[in-house]
Amino acid sequence: MTARILITGATGNVGSEVVRGLQALSIPFRIGLVNPSSTCLEANDHMEVVPFDFLNPETYSAAFAGIQHLFLMRPPALSNVWRDIAPAVRAAVECGVEHIVFLSLQGVEQNRITPHYKIEKLIEQLGVRYTFLRAGFFMQNLSTTQAAEIRDAGEIALPVGKAKTSFVDVRDIAAVAVYALTADQHESQKYTLTGPEALDYTQVALKLSHVLERSIRYTNPSVFRFIWRQLRAGRGLGYTLVVAGLYTITRLGNAKTVTDDVQRILGRPAIPFDQFAHDYRASWQ
Ligand SMILES: NC(=O)c1ccc[n+]([C@@H]2O[C@H](COP(=O)([O-])OP(=O)(O)OC[C@H]3O[C@@H](n4cnc5c(N)ncnc54)[C@H](OP(=O)(O)O)[C@@H]3O)[C@@H](O)[C@H]2O)c1
After folding, report:
1. Which amino acids bring their CB within 6 angstroms of ligand 1?
2. 202-251 pLDDT, tens digit each
3. Ligand 1 atom closest to residue 38's alpha carbon, by position in its atom list
4. What is the spatial order of strands in the sheet that 47-51 belongs to?
């Protein structure tokens, strides 16, 4: 087997679904893990496992050797692009990577302070082929970050008012990533990946109430109360401020645009919220 595809963040929300998608197609690929022995992902006939740490340049050359297509994601904890991410991206191109599929952010082109904006610019400057997956808010935020609050308190406490969000299912993002990593496309592309509808959190709470057959409330705290609750729950200040900033962008109405990129690329409709809620109901039970 000769792997030409490297997946970063293979244990994450999107990366794990990319792994699943490539495995289903029996396409050989490699995953780069910070600590390969600590996860349940084991090498098999189609999957190589190598050490890869954005923060450790010694892991770069073996991880990138022979790779043409790189699935690149920025771990949320790494926010200093020039110190934490750029060295690996430059090394990838120096090692011969020809195409980078980057997990970016919806609206990034108007949001220059985000790490994703800087990473997109870096990739463009390096002159390598790219596919930017500018993803909307993940539906799976509700089944991961928000899960305990929904399960234990029956509430969604986010400071977004009545604003709508065009939530996307990470399974759709991963399906587009698999397409980009394996299709023989030669032009660089920028896709904005959203779900099929924009919902406010009162609608989200109603949909979850329906699936779970119990009442889930949307409480709409102020930004200051949200920050205070995050800090009290043990989340770091830097992380909390970034998340509060993203929800403020949503509150201002900037996360509601729906696109048909998923449908155009995959030839099937994007996964609707109702389907997500049904498939992930165990997360809140
Ligand atoms: N959440 C949203 O709504 C949303 C929307 C649009 C874009 N995004 C972007 O999507 C990205 C997050 O994707 P995700 O949710 O799939 O990730 P995730 O679930 O948060 O997982 C993070 C991944 O990064 C890996 N990792 C951590 N530190 C690393 C290091 N030093 N070197 C190499 N790998 C490292 C982790 O590996 P271990 O398991 O070994 O720790 C894990 O696989 C972020 O850039 C975020 O801004 C998120």
Report:
1. 8-15, 33-34, 52-55, 73-77, 103, 105, 135, 137-138, 141
2. 999 999 999 999 999 999 999 999 999 999 989 888 888 888 988 998 99
3. 40
4. 47-51, 29-33, 5-7, 69-72, 99-105, 129-135, 189-193
Interior/surface letters 194-215, b for 16+ CB within 10 angstroms, e for the rest = bbbbbbbbebbbbbbeebbeee
What is the atom index within ligand 1 of the atom nearest the CA of 52?
33
Residues 56, 72, 117: CA angle, nearest 5 degrees: 100
114 Cα–ligand 1 center, Å = 15
Going along the chain from its start, the domains and CATH numbers come out as 5-135 (3.40.50.720), 137-168+194-256+267-285 (3.90.25.10)
Calculate how far, in angstroms, residue 199's C-alpha sits from the geometric centre of ligand 1.
25
102-140 pLDDT, tens digit each:
999 999 998 888 899 999 999 999 999 999 999 999 999
Residue to probe by mutation, ligand 1, list 56, 73, 104, 194, most atoms within 8 Å of CB = 73
- pTM of the entire structure? 0.97
- Three-class DSSP category at 141: helix
